[in-house]
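Sanity check

After download, print the first record. It should look like this:
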Amino acid sequence: MNNGIHKGLADPDYRAIEGLSQSAMKALMRSPGHFKFQQENPKEGTPAMVMGRLFHHLALTPDVAPWWAIKPDGMSFATKEGKAWRAEQTSEIVSADQWEQSKGMAMAVRQHPALPTFEATEVSIFGDMDGVKVKARLDALAGDIWDLKSTDDARPEGFGKSIFTYGYYIQAAFYLDLYNLFSEKKAEAFYFVAVESEPPHGCRIYRLSDVAIEQGRYEYRRLLKLFQFCTEHNSWPIYTDEVGEIALPSWAIKG
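Expected structure tokens:
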């Protein structure tokens, strides 16, 4: 696949192409050893991952043919009827609860009055940064970059914690810089559409601050250098061998 911006590339095709992604960087943040293990032992599709795919499909590409079949509510695969139904399916099976929850989340996103009309969704980008082959898959473009996130708490305090904990600020800086390498019209901002996974599916839209993006830029460039070093030396350490001292977190200390 040539370097640059690609629209209309199917998700399985994107995943099959080599390149360091922001999701892989998350494992590298913990340690090179965790990254290496994850690459050699990819996770099977967890319920949370299936929910994420379903939610994104319904919110971003509702007119695209479904890849799923909805298991009838109350059906048991231990019964003759359930076994027969499952054997007939050629699509991935999702539960009725997963379907209803994803549909509610997607509806909350699409009904938000501040949501723009997207010029493109599911946009793939391939390139080279600091000597490392990288890739990204953007949720949506509307002049700037937009990203959908499911969350337990869409309020600023709750979602702000998620931005740090899950490295969303690193993703934002990485996506902006990679996209702007190839786009004539530069993206200047990164927006999160945060929607709560539980009803009533509260939804908030946030523009990530320039300070947070600059911090994310520092972090992803550090990770690229770390990846390059580990690759060149074929060394993937986990944690230091030194004996350290540990204390209570500051918030747990009273008086």
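If your output differs, re-run the checksum step. Summary of this record's structure: The chain has a mean pLDDT of 95.
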